[in-house]
Specification:
The chain is of the alpha/beta class. 49% of the residues lie in helices and 13% in strands.
Amino acid sequence: TDMQPGLVTAKFGGSSLSTAAMVRTVVEIVRSDRSRRAIVVSAPGTRYKGDIKITDLLAAWARDGCAGDSVHFKEVAERFEVLTRDLGVVDFDLPNKLARIQSLMVTAKAFTPEILHECAMSRGEWLNAQLIAHVLGYTFIDAADFISFSEDGTYHHTATIRRAEGVRIRERMADGIVIPGFYGSTVSRAIRTFPRDGSDITGSIVA
C-alpha cells in the first residue's frame, strides 16, 4: 500500500517466514524494490504438514502458566535457534531475547488471565520481527509502542495515530522499519491482540 511517493508497506505472513529459505526469499523480495520500507511480519508458521505454528505453541505455553521450563516454550526456543542458525546469523542475541519474554510474562501475570494469554501469543511476532529487522538491516519498532487498544481490548485508532507520530514512524520509514503484526498495547502497557491472523490488520494500520 502506498504511504507516500517512494514508500510502501509490505506484510509477510507466517507461512512465508517459516524457514530460513523462506526468510531469504522475503529478504530478496524486500530488497528488489527499495520502496518497500515498512515491513510487517507474522510469527513463523508451519514448515510441513503436521507442524505447529509458533503462535499455537505460545498459546499452549500460556495454558501451562508461562512456566520457564514448559516443553512448549522450549519448542519455541528451538524453532528460533534453528532459524537463526540456518540463516547464518551469529550476532543476534537470541538467549537474551528469550529471557526478556519470560521476564515480561512475570509482569503480565499481574493482569487478567486473558491478557496473560494474549501477551504470550504475541511474542512470536515480537521475536520474529527483531530477527527479520536484523537480517534486513532495518530498524525494529515494537507495535506495543504505538498500536493502541482501549482497556477493554478494542482497537483505538486515534491513540494509534498520535502514538505513531510520537515514535516517528514516517520519518524512520525512510531508512526501513520492521514492525511485528497482531498486537499492540493499552495505556497501562498491557499487551492486547487482534483476532488470529490479525497481522493483516496491523499491515493496514501501518499503511
